[in-house]
């Protein structure tokens, strides 16, 4: 049976993600669990796909940030956000956390935040 540990990333984190055949940066707008996955974990019936690709069972709602370049510091000249601020991805699709302070997030990344995420960033 697999253990359900804490999420690796938090709401309001700016991360680099893989999707399909590409990558981009993204703002995490929500951290959530999949009830079916949790039930399967408790019963020891986790499919091989989930055991390999998302062993912790955490899922994230993100807004993808395109055109930001390959470096950790985003090149905002050609950057644009996806229309969908609530794309669901699994933890294995997140490559790494990109350090960004509160002021940078509020000034440059607020278009990719839901109202709830923006309030969370302001309060931290």
Notes on the protein architecture:
The protein is 25% helix and 31% strand. The model has no long low-confidence stretch (mean pLDDT 88). Strands 1, 2, 3, 4, 5 and 6 form a 6-stranded antiparallel β-sheet that branches. The protein is an alpha+beta fold.
Give the structural class: alpha+beta
- Name the overall outline: globular
Q: Give the biggest beta sheet.
A: 6 strands, antiparallel
Number of helices: 4
Mean pLDDT: 88
**Oligomer kind:** single chain
**How much strand content do the residues show?**
25-35%
Query: Rg, please?
Result: 15 Å
Order of helices and strands: EEHHEEEEHH
Helix share, percent: 25-40%
**Number of strand segments:** 6
In short:
The chain is α+β, with helices and mostly antiparallel strands. It has helices at 35-43, 48-53, 102-108, 115-123, and strands spanning 14-19, 22-33, 58-66, 80-81, 87-90, 94-98. The N and C termini lie far apart (36 Å).
Give a quick set of tags describing it.
124 residues, alpha+beta, 6-stranded antiparallel β-sheet, 4 helices, 25% helix
Helices and strands, with pairings:
Blueprint: E1 14-19, E2 22-33, H1 35-43, H2 48-53, E3 58-66, E4 80-81, E5 87-90, E6 94-98, H3 102-108, H4 115-123
Antiparallel strand pairs: 1-2, 1-6, 2-3, 3-4, 3-5
């Amino acid at each position: 049976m697999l253990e359900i540990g804490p999420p690796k990333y938090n709401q309001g984190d700016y991360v680099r993600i893989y999707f399909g055949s590409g990558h981009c940066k993204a703002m995490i707008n929500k951290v959530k669990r999949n009830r079916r996955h949790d039930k399967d974990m408790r019963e020891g019936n986790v499919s091989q796909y989930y055991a390999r690709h998302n062993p912790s069972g955490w899922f994230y709602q993100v807004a993808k940030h395109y055109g930001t370049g390959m470096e950790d510091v985003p090149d905002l000249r050609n950057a644009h956000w996806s229309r969908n601020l609530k794309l669901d991805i699994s933890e294995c699709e997140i490559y790494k956390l990109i350090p960004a302070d509160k002021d940078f997030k509020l000034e440059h990344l607020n278009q990719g935040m839901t109202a709830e995420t923006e309030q969370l960033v302001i309060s931290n």
